[in-house]
Amino acid sequence: MIPTAFEYASPTTVEEAVAALAEAVSHHRDVKVLAGGQSLLPVLRLRLAAPELVVDLSRVEGLRGVRDDGDAIVIGAMTTHDEVMRDPLVNEHDLLLALTTRTVADPQVRHRGTFGGSLAHADPAGDLLAPALALDAQLVIAGPSGRTRTVAAHDFFTDLFTTTLDEDELLVEVRVPKYTGWGASYQKFNRVAQAWSIVGVAAAVKSDGGTIGEARIGLTNMASTPVRARAVEQALVGQPATDEAIRAAVADVTAGTQPPADANADADYRRHLAGVLTRRAVLAAAGA
Amino acid sequence: MSQISVEVDGVTYSDMVEPRTLLVQYLRENLGKVGTVIGCDTSNCGSCTVLLDGRSVKSCSVLAVQADGHKVTTIEGLATDGQLHPVQKAFHNQHALQCGFCTPGMIMATCGLLGENPSPTEEEVREGLEGNLCRCTGYQNIVKAVLEAAPEVAQMSAGESPVEPATQPAGQRAHTTTGEAAAASVGGAS
């Protein structure tokens, strides 16, 4: 199918883009922001959404690229998955994000899909939410009249496909603190490349001489929002990076999760997967 | 309607399109380039893969207006002077197709892959083509074909990009797909 007819705006600055959104919202028009389009265009084609206006960000200056900002790296919202996973700064300082991004869909989708688009879409089965949460990413949001605000990933994802973004706001960049030297692993269970994660586990681990010093763990598709496994993170501190010790420390990883049940897996099976994948992810991230 | 100007297989086309027009529709219905096929409605199958500025994309998940000012290479832009592109030739040699429906997308995804990784391992070929489905499950011969094509593509690209058509009609032609001009230009460009 082809999408229903819509008006199309292709602003060249963040101000123009936000103004277009604000104008549409003030007239109660249904508006969608188009980033890489790898989620939105299928949704439009299947006519699950029929916006009156589509605001395309692809020609907006300054939303693409990765830069070093001292204790964090800053990733423009329109940076593609392909660019993120190949970026030297991301690979050096936030390996977990690079490794996770390599697992997103397939090469064609990674050439178009964007980091910011994935986060703003907030699909609980989307892979990049868990590392953003685990790494304490900060999301920089532009609103009308030049207003900007910064929201922690922890506060950004509020429900299924729902974030704190207002309809007249844009996610413009993401600040990811540096975890230089940390090991990382993203373990994802899905059927084929194009399928969503049934469960995914993102783990970053700081090890010292075979002992785990710090750990950060985010879970994909174990609730309506990404889940941070804080109890497990704490249980891992000081543990030797051995299969036995890690197995014991990650035993309660499903505490606080509310996994969905669907055609791919029921909730119990997702809980089982989360345990197995967390152990594998922590073992790999700890270099064990 | 929006005005777009897109270079497709070496020829520049200027057209008015509805913003909702998908790139694949534009290629097939406006330009008559039906070599690019539509296999699914869910971005799964990869059969509509083309190169956009040299990178593989699924043309069902790109709007024609997003291709404005960019360069598209389709399966129809690979062969030059009646000579198959090395990837096409390798698919032929290795019998890398059964029903053939996925083939245009497989070949374009291969061109994209070899542009980024000129000498992939078998594993890298399999991963590199993970966005394309073959319903006949003829993957073994597809992988063999990609491995066979790689050295020749690398040799061919010494100097220029493997994903760009080597020769094209001289100069850029304005093309408008309305009325009789459309039919004439489509014929002329194919």
Give the SSE string of chain B: EEHEEEHHHHH
The profile of the biggest β sheet of chain B is: 5 strands, mixed
Let me know the CATH homologous superfamily of the largest domain in chain B: Beta-grasp domain
In the residues of chain A, how many domains can be counted? 3
How are the SSEs ordered, and which strands pair?
The complex is a heterodimer of chains A (288) and B (190).
Chain A: E1 7-9, H1 14-26, E2 31-34, H2 40-45, E3 53-56, E4 66-69, E5 72-76, H3 81-86, H4 88-93, H5 95-102, H6 107-112, H7 115-121, H8 129-134, E6 138-142, E7 148-152, H9 153-156, E8 157-159, E9 162-163, E10 170-177, E11 183-189, E12 199-208, E13 211-220, E14 227-228, H10 230-236, H11 243-249, H12 267-285
Parallel strand pairs in A: 1-3, 2-3
Antiparallel strand pairs in A: 4-5, 5-10, 6-7, 6-10, 8-9, 11-12, 12-13, 13-14
Chain B: E1 2-8, E2 11-17, H1 23-30, E3 49-52, E4 55-58, E5 71-73, H2 86-93, H3 103-116, H4 122-128, H5 139-156, H6 179-189
Helix pairs in contact in B: 2-5, 3-5
How would you describe this structure to a colleague?
The complex is a heterodimer of chains A (288) and B (190). Chain A is α+β, with helices and mostly antiparallel strands and 288 residues long. Chain A is built from twelve helices and 14 strands. Chain A has helices at 14-26, 40-45, 81-86, 88-93, 95-102, 107-112, 115-121, 129-134, 153-156, 230-236, 243-249, 267-285; strands at 7-9, 31-34, 53-56, 66-69, 72-76, 138-142, 148-152, 157-159, 162-163, 170-177, 183-189, 199-208, 211-220, 227-228. A five-stranded antiparallel beta sheet of chain A has the order 4-5-10-6-7, sandwiched between helices. Chain A has a four-stranded antiparallel beta sheet with strand order 11-12-13-14. In chain A, β12 and β13 form a beta hairpin. In chain A, 53% of the residues are buried. The mean pLDDT of chain A is 97. With 190 residues, chain B is α+β, with helices and mostly antiparallel strands. Chain B folds into two domains: 2-77 and 166-189, Ubiquitin-like (UB roll); 86-156, DNA polymerase, domain 1 (Orthogonal Bundle), CATH 1.10.150.120. Chain B is 35% helix and 13% strand. Chain B contains six helices and five strands; from the N terminus they run ββαβββααααα. The radius of gyration of chain B is 16 Å and the shape is globular. The two termini of chain B are 26 Å apart. At the A-B interface, α2 and α6 of A face β4 and α3 of B.
